[in-house]
Amino acid sequence: MDSQPELPIPISYVSGRYLLHSIEAVTYLRREHHICGVLIGTLPQIPQQNVFLGLPLELMPEEARLLVDKDVACIVDEAKAQKGMNNLLEEDRRRYLRELEAEGLHYTRLQVDLKDSKREQTMKKLEEKKAKAGAKAKAVAAAAAAQTQTSEGAAPKSSMKDAAVVDLFAPDDTRSSSPATSTPSQSAMAITPATSYPPLPTPPSSTHLAAPAVPPSYPLFAHLHSRGYFLSPGLRFGCQYMAYPGDPLRFHSHFLVVSYDWDQNIDLMDLIVGGRLGTGVKKGFLIGGAQRTIDEVDSEADRVDTVRAFSLEWAGM
Amino acid sequence: MADADDDVLKNPANASVQPEVDLSDETQDFRFLNNLNIYADSGSLPRRGEKDFEPNPTEHQTGVLSESRKAMHIALSFPRLHGSKSHVIAFYAPDGYFPLAEVSPPKAPQHTEKSTESPEKPVRPTPRSANINPDVCVYVPNPKGTLFKSVGQSDRWNRLWLLPEEALYLIERGSLDIRWPSPTDPAVTGQDDLSIPMSLQAAYASFVGHGGLTLERYSVYTGLKRLGYTLARAPGWCDEAEQQENEHETSPSSSVHENVKPMLRGAGLAGILGSFFNWLHDPHSTASTTTGPMIGTGIHRHYMDVYRKLAIIPWYDPVTAPPSNPSDITAPFRVVFHVWKPSTPFKKSAPPTPEFRVAVLSTRDQASMPTMTQLGALLESTPLDPPSGEKMERMMYMRLRHGYRHVILAVVDQGVVSYLRVADSAFGKEKLYENQGGPRGPKRGGRGQQKSRKR
């Protein structure tokens, strides 16, 4: 989990959107670069709910741009890259299929083991219950001394069962390995891989796309991000971005962020509405923008240094 | 949000009765997910945990955070496995629908025999089957299981053809094993099957962008599917079908319009003006809006008459309103999905009347609020659905809320979906003075359009 994936991380560009499919990349970017994105996929283990979602991770163009500017990531035209699937050599195919089969076999074994251990546990529980019942019977029997013979008969019976269980599981090692070796192809589970990169080679840097185009709010986004905030899309909460002081996994957001151009006229009502909304949910309403326009500076990165931000709070007197 | 959060934290027993807390609104702590036994298919969800206000340099907090991240990592790297019992194989057909090759009859039985293992080489005939959607791109030779009840189209070889969003949803939830078409003819290589399973990444790359499927539309589709709704493409899905759809969709409303017109007063400015002049020239009335008392002199026996005379402001009636110009319907303000509740019995061959109509908007392509014309045209494209039923008769606010036409806007902001219900309500139709005792409940104002959060 603490591994560092190979840089730059390829971001899939699919029909105008930026997606990440590799779990290593997602964890790494979240940990090291404070990029969270939005999970949009279905979790195969619990597919019928919307509370926990899984891969892929959708990145805002701002996030993708930030990563590209930092040379952490690159943009890959995924639809084009996937066409390479049709040109795979036969040996590569065979090798990949073999790998998948080995992996599937691994999961099959895991599942068998899990089932075994579960069965073992329930058996143990049953045994414990029986032992308890036996002990009770013994106590009762001890009180009523007349029935000693039957209780003594019960105790060895249970211990014999214990022995039987042990017997059952003693040759288990040989048994569990024997079906696996004898019928490997049938028992291997089929797998739908998450990404296409082992079979496909890493796309060469010549095929990388240009850095993503970003909305005018990008300088403010980059500014807040450089100050350690985690940002996520915020329309659902009535703003452009939500700014979190730390990983949203653990913290509530502090600011509702809206970006304005420096010379833009701001409707007073917008400020009142935003301020009231933010105060109502115990967050600050933050507005900001870059003082320089893109014509005045060399690059988008220079504008980030000229960003100023203000926060509003509704102080009902 | 924070208020609600605090309440929940202080009073967790209350959380279940608070319908307004939507768990999916927030980033959830994945640690709770992994407490579930993921091999058992228990559908229950974990409760959410506490969050801190701000980071502090304690080891405790660092530890908890890294635990959470680890849990997330484990949950997200869960593999998509296909056990032998539930294994359903499908094949990717990048060129769309093709019939089984009948040109070579000796080959046909061979195909059916091993159709589950080997993909057929795509043979593209010029005439496409009329009833199969041209956007299909995946077929399932041997469909089994309940998931296929509401998706796909079968052809005469009993293959089930899936649209890109259907295929992507199924592969993503781990219910379908889609294979790349094999480059080699299976007849040549013999038994060797070299078709590679498609990865989820490849599926996204191949299906999103195919046949009008955008990532936003897919997010809405899959989000509602996860909740159990049944979805089907609406005629507004693609641009070409737009014209047809308009003709088709507006015909019932226009016929209603014609039936109603003679009975009620004419619609539009001319009609209103006409009735206004009629009323002005009414010889029995001494009332005049220009010169005299508006309600006229004489004996008034009922307040109702007085109120009726005072009602001189023309109002909008969705039933008699003239149909708008179909060319006003512009992307993205088009109905792209028909949606049915999970409880509604659904038949693929004869889908019931849609319960919801959903238009999908992307905030990055459509940054401003829709104009009145756009919204009006969108509502106009849905059939008239006046409030009916015993409850509606009784409760005025429910009638207003329900409206005469309604549509759901799914606003997708970078993967985060919000649903808005837009209804065409007729405030003019609700004569408050005819109500005994007047309306109850909080005062609410508004005009022809009324919005409310769905869910």
UniProtKB/TrEMBL annotation, chain A:
Name of this protein: tRNA-splicing endonuclease subunit Sen34
Gene Ontology annotations of biological process type: tRNA-type intron splice site recognition and cleavage
Cellular-component GO terms for this entry: tRNA-intron endonuclease complex
EC number of this enzyme: 4.6.1.16
Annotated segments matching region Disordered: 171-208
Function according to Swiss-Prot or TrEMBL: Constitutes one of the two catalytic subunit of the tRNA-splicing endonuclease complex, a complex responsible for identification and cleavage of the splice sites in pre-tRNA. It cleaves pre-tRNA at the 5'- and 3'-splice sites to release the intron. The products are an intron and two tRNA half-molecules bearing 2',3'-cyclic phosphate and 5'-OH termini. There are no conserved sequences at the splice sites, but the intron is invariably located at the same site in the gene, placing the splice sites an invariant distance from the constant structural features of the tRNA body.
Residues at the active site: Y244, H252, K283
Keywords on record: Lyase, tRNA processing
Top class in the EC scheme: lyase
Annotated tRNA intron endonuclease catalytic domain residues: 218-290
Organism: Penicillium olsonii
Biased amino acid composition, Low complexity: 176-195
A Pfam family of this chain: TSEN34_N
Phylogenetic classification of the source organism: Eukaryota, Fungi, Dikarya, Ascomycota, Pezizomycotina
Family: Belongs to the tRNA-intron endonuclease family.
Domain TSEN34 N-terminal: 9-78
InterPro entries on file: tRNA_endonuc-like_dom_sf, tRNA_intron_Endo_cat-like_sf, tRNA_intron_Endonuc_cat-like, tRNA_splic, TSEN34, TSEN34_N
Record-level Gene Ontology MF annotations: nucleic acid binding; tRNA-intron lyase activity
From TrEMBL, chain B:
Organism: Penicillium olsonii
Record domain tRNA-splicing endonuclease subunit Sen54 N-terminal: where: 75-180
Organism lineage: Eukaryota, Fungi, Dikarya, Ascomycota, Pezizomycotina
The family this protein is said to belong to: Belongs to the SEN54 family.
Basic residues bias: start-end ranges: 441-455
GO cellular component, one term: tRNA-intron endonuclease complex
GO biological process entries: tRNA-type intron splice site recognition and cleavage
Keywords of the record: tRNA processing
Biased composition (Basic and acidic residues): 110-123
Pfam families: tRNA_int_end_N2 (PF12928)
Residues covered by region (Disordered): 1-26, 41-66, 103-130, 430-455
Protein name per Swiss-Prot or TrEMBL: tRNA-splicing endonuclease subunit Sen54 N-terminal domain-containing protein
InterPro entries attached to this UniProt entry: tRNA_splic_suSen54, tRNA_splic_suSen54_N
